[in-house]
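# step 3/5: fold
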Amino acid sequence: MRTTIGYTVESIGYVIAAQGLVGFASQTFFGTEWGWLHKLVDLPPAAHLAVLAAGLALVAAGVRTRKTPRHRQAA
């Protein structure tokens, strides 16, 4: 079960991080809006960096959960 949860959290983290990165890059370098996030909320570039950080935190949590060894109970 931990493996499934780890992969799921990690996958969601990648999507969130990508939206933060694309939103930041599009506003900062091109002056346009890319991605899906701008359709939900209007964020400044600094907030997109916070979304990127949150996504990377989810990725790290998913990897850590996935790599946690299972504890065996003594029989």
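# step 4/5: annotate
Helices lie at 2-30, 37-40, 45-67.
# step 5/5: archive (pending)
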